[in-house]
Amino acid sequence: MKLALLHVAVALRRCSVVLGVLVLSLSGLSSAAEVQVAVAANFTAPMKRIAEAFEKDTGHKAVLSYGATGRFYAQITNGAPFDVFLSADHETPARLEKDGAAMAGTSFTYATGRLVLWSAKPGLVDEKGAVLVRNEFRRLAIAAPKLAPYGAAAMETLTKIGMLPLLQAKLVTGESIGQTFSMISTGNAELGFVAMSQVFEDNKLKSGSVWLVPAHLHSPIQQNAVLLARGTNNPAALQLLTFMKSGQARAIMNAYGYE
Fold first, then answer.
1. What is the pTM of this model?
2. In a domain, 24, yes or no
3. Which domain holds residue 99?
């Protein structure tokens, strides 16, 4: 009889341990949440790494969508289901706050971008950008200036160096900086203006040839993040914005050339 009772006690103890593990697992799952993030196309590579680090650190998952800043503005104001917006400028988040589509006072600069002139062909682009003056190419790609801040910066640069009238007929535009990069990498345009983060990793040029456009040739590309109205009660959204300010996130950004 005593032996039987002992077996019952051991069985009950095992059940309680299993139940405890299940409760802990379920509580962990319930505390994890998702945050829907609209990400400016120039920030694709670093944000993938930041999202991985964020999930590892907090358990929350950042679901990323990439595109042109101007296109995201239209989508968000028309009710697109995003919680956080990582813009390629600071004006668009401010407009969203004014429109009531983002929470007032939550916008902050998470990075300052760098514009580069890049070609997939090694040796085509020199380190001073003289390839533009030589004008020995068929197509020069830029992002649409009205939709993408990097496209606007490219137009400013061409204007400042006096080459816009000579190169205007050779310009081809992508809707976003991501599409512009694809046009150059596939050879549909021999060269073009993209974000430094698209062609650098760990502070090294991944391929091709590049000119780092001097910052004084265009307005600062000040990139702001903002909490959207939909993300107000989402703890994952709030934690992601906090994580964007962390040393871990900043180290990733620096590796891609952001200041």
1. 0.81
2. no
3. 32-112+221-255
